[in-house]
Amino acid sequence: MSSILLQVIELPSNLTYLFAAFTIAWAGFFIYAALLSRRQRDVQRDITLLNKAVRSSDAEEELL
Amino acid sequence: MLTMTNNFHVFAAILSKDILLDFRGRDIIFSVPIFGILLILLFNFALDVTPDMVDDLAPGILWVSFAFSGVLTMNRSFVREKEQGGLEGLLISPISRDIIFFGKAASNFLFMILVEFVLLLALAVMLGFLVTSWVLVLTIVLTTIGFATLGTLFSAIAVETRSREVMLPVLFFPLIIPILIGAVEVTSEVIGGTSGAVARWLPLIGIFDALFLIICPWLFSAIIQE
Amino acid sequence: MLDFNSAKRSLFSYVLAGLAIVLMTFNLLLIFIVAPTDAVLGDIQRIFYIHVPIAVMSFLAFFVVCIGSIMYLIRRTSYWDRLAHSAAEVGVVFVTITLLTGVVWARPVWGVWWTWEPRLTTTLILWLIYVAYLMVRSYAPNRSQGSLYAAAIGIVGFVDVPIVYYSVQWWRSIHPAAVVGPLAESGSLEPIMRNILLVSLVAFVLVFVWLLQQKMAIQKASDLLISISHISDRTRV
To answer: Considering only alpha carbons, which residue of chain A is nearest residue C6?
Structure first.
């Protein structure tokens, strides 16, 4: 009985591991969200370029 | 409309074509068993197998060798199809794709059984591991059916991708773990290990086979295009 | 005149993100302030409140991949393909974090970084299948074949995972771990712990849905872009 008590007292709080786990989880999600964000900017930029290209070719056609 | 006998004729044709090519071509028929024997050799040295350890290690060595040889077999068979344009020819013809799948799977199965027989012999000679047991034969047959079913589907996929040699193992190995474990456990019991393994694992392998014998042909039909 | 707004964030996604942030903050408060310290394991046990929901979500993601794959093979619309692909990608993120948090949990509690315990092993195999799914997509000769092949893997993989779990569990009963230590989860769950776990689960569901929605929107816009650039290439004389 006392040995069990001793074990409980001796048990380290393992705060580093706890901190590491939560950091990993949060960093993981944020990195992925940031990656998605970057891809979104790229796609948006391409769409804008495409819009411009289409508009300019429309304008060319009107001149003809 | 193709009748039942017609289907069987087609199936037999695909099967015999593959067997003929294997024997005439002489590439797979020599290289895969040799590869398997080399694996056993490597295991012998890497694991430092002493006579008293053989019973413990042999089941694992056996089945890992079977699995790797199986991958080699199935890879080669579809690569050959692709190189010679055989697959396109098959697909354009009005044969049901299920039949094509079963034909290829059956030829893979038969070839793997042949190689496994050779490897059993090799293991008997090199490590003194000799087992004559109908249970073992049944296990080998059932597990190889599982290998052939999943493996044929995956090698049809892998052969179309780049890095195809890597793609098949990556797809295949994680998914056959259940039957691999089962086969090793049953083999262990057959040579006098823990009891109860056969009753527990053989049904699992059987269910695995039944499940994938239904799913894989359907998937094959759905995803293979001309 | 062509005008695409599909890549822009909609009101829905802003609301979703907001809800997720609020609930997650509340969740963190609960985990660190309200949750009692475990008598056996100590504070390290709090990982449980994020590890379990993240693990559950990664399995849920795979379920979505399977449904999307089946529907894609039947209907062949790009929506289902996009759903499967997005769920797989978000799922990989969740499984990877599950594995990493699991490892970080295992070291102080069991004394080893890894153990061939059924759940951990099955999660590793799940990760391998997801990775194979994404590999096939990118290594396939073209987009449509990649979608089909990946669908096959999404289905076969999902069917196999329960079998893998049970077989590893049986295997473990024959070969118990050399490491003997306190159980990761004390058998009984106090009501307060269970409630906090539920809150955490809901919070992560929101995170998952938000990430999924973002990925799907980007994928849709990207697909549209590709198909239009093909058209414009062809109409240019």
So the answer is: A44
Angle at C120 between CA C114 and CA C121, to 5 degrees: 90
Supply the range of the domain harboring residue C137.
Answer: 46-177+191-221
What Cα–Cα distance (Å) separates residue B2 from each residue in B13, B14, B104, B106?
15, 16, 19, 20
Residue of A4, A18, A56 for testing the chain C interface, max C β-carbons within 10 Å? A18
Give the residue extent of every domain in chain B: 4-223
CB < 8 Å to C174, chain B: 185, 194, 197
Nearest CA in chain C to B168: C132
Domain membership of residue C146 (yes or no) is yes
Closest CA relative to residue B152, chosen from B14, B1, B40 = B14
Number of domains in chain A: 1
Question: A35 in contact with C at a CB cutoff of 8 Å?
Answer: no
The structure tokens listed for B210 are 């039944």
In chain C, the number of structural domains is: 1
> Is ipTM > 0.90 here?
no
Range of the domain at A53: 15-63
Asked if C156 and B212 come within 8 Å (Cβ–Cβ), the reply is yes
pLDDT for C118 equals 86
Note whether residue C164 is domain-resident.
Answer: yes
Residue that wins the pLDDT comparison between A9 and B38? B38
Give tens-digit pLDDT for B35-91.
999 999 999 889 888 888 888 888 999 999 999 999 999 988 788 777 777 777 777
> Which residues of chain B have a CB within 8 Å of the CB of C144?
225
Is the separation of the CB atoms in B119 and B63 below 8 Å?
no
Residues in C touching B204 (Cβ below 8 Å): 163, 166-167
